[in-house]
Amino acid sequence: MNVPFVDLYAQYLTIKKEIDSAIENVIKNSLYIGGSPVQSFEKNYAQHTGIKHVIGCANGTDSLEILLQVFNVNAGDEVIVPAMSWISTSEAVGTRGAKPVFVDIDPLTYTIDVSKIEKSITPKTKAIIPVHLYGNPADMPAIMHIAQKHNLKVIEDCAQSHDATINGKKIGTFGDAASFSFYPGKNLGAYGDAGAMATNDDDTALKARMIANHGQQGKHNHQMEGRNSRLDGLHAAVLDVKLKYIDKWTKLRMEHANTYNELFKGTSVKTPFVKDGFGHVYHLYVIQVENREKVIDQLNKNSIGNALHYPTPLPFLPAYKHLNHKPSDFPVVHEFAKRIVSIPMYAEISNDQIRFVVDTIKKVL
Ligand SMILES: *Cc1c(COP(=O)(O)O)cnc(C)c1O
User: Fold this and answer.
1) Cα 218 to ligand 1 centre (Å)
2) Could you tell which of 81, 88, 186, 342 is best to mutate to test the pocket of ligand 1, judged by most ligand atoms within 8 Å of the CB?
3) Relative to the CA of 283, which ligand 1 atom is closest?
4) CA angle 250–255–261, rounded 5-degree value
5) CB of 336 closer than 6 A to ligand 1?
């Protein structure tokens, strides 16, 4: 049995007619940049998330960077980010000329360790970017409490966590603004790079939209130099179709996670931990194992997709060599990164496939 890590083609086949017709409509009407597909998706996604403004942009990395610009994060400033994430989270800080200040992860949830944030705040700190890693929400109530006390902006990195919740409230609605990625493999994915910024604040929304579209406030009215970071019509049309199915797909991901959890019970495999009241949406299903080399080898031999998210914690990447971080600065993530492996997770995976994955891993525990 072959179990791919994700199967985007399988997903396409379930909605082929609608996708094909949405794409044809964009081409027929030459709605490539802006226009009704983008407006429609922005409106629908705002309604879906419960956030007042959604502004499409080219990708999730741009979205973080533009929001940092809106919040006046510049050279000399510091921004607090978790030590485990995709590089975009810290990269967006660096490309603004600011310094990413890494904070270790919580050993249970793998999201930023809230108890270590305040120690990292200095007079230069401007913002915090919590990441809802793998789809598991960061502790937003605690983070907002710290941010308000120290007058910091909060940008939620929601790239892996579309529709994750805390006590029924969707992520992205806690911070000053939220950043979404619609990279094809994300829980809501376009057919190429795409992203969005979201905020309840009118002024933040206005500035973000302006920066993403050459600093324009209406055609040829350039208030400032911005950049070209727009959501393409084709991607918006695809996303608008997929948005109708995201509730169903998220529910399936949660069910598959439960199946994995049940099947791993009684083994030495450490399955994801979810706090009471938190809604994990399982962008990734990440386990911890003692003998990772053997497990990966066994998965590969049986044509089971697997990956590491991420092999090197952010502070230890060559890109951050100049910050001179030692493993003892981030002891939790340092150990964690040696034990993790991500196994197949997507709405279309079958129970037979899940059982095969678990049985295969059990053979080498
Ligand atoms: C994917 C991702 C991003 C960036 O999104 P792109 O659309 O690929 O630029 C940012 N943060 C996290 C945590 C991600 O997983």
Assistant:
1) 29
2) 88
3) 15
4) 125
5) no
CA 284 to chain centre: 10
Closest ligand 1 atom to residue 62 Cα is 9
Greatest extent of the chain over all pairs of C-alpha atoms, in Å:
65
Task: Count the neighbouring beta carbons within 10 Å of the beta carbon of residue 87.
Answer: 16
pLDDT at 55: 98
Q: What is the pLDDT of residue 46?
A: 98
- Is the C-beta atom of 60 inside 6 A of ligand 1? yes
Q: Ligand 1 centroid vs 226 CA: distance in angstroms?
A: 21
Give the pLDDT of residue 251: 98
Q: By the 8 A CB rule, do 178 and 156 touch?
A: yes
- Whether 244 and 45 have beta carbons less than 8 Å apart is answered as no
- Identify the pLDDT of residue 115: 98
pLDDT given at position 169: 98
Check residue 312 and give its pLDDT: 98
Tokens 């949406």 belong to residue:
281
Pocket test for ligand 1, best of 64, 129, 183 (most atoms within 8 A of CB): 183
Residue 203 is predicted with a pLDDT of 98
131 lines ligand 1 (CB under 6 A): yes
**Taking Cα atoms as reference points, which of 184, 228, 231, 223 lies closest to residue 207?**
223
The single residue listed with the structure tokens 């050459």 is 214
* SS3 assignment, position 1: coil
Residues 6+ apart with CB under 8 A from 297: 364
Residues with pLDDT less than 70, the chain: none
CA of 220 to the centre of ligand 1 (A): 31
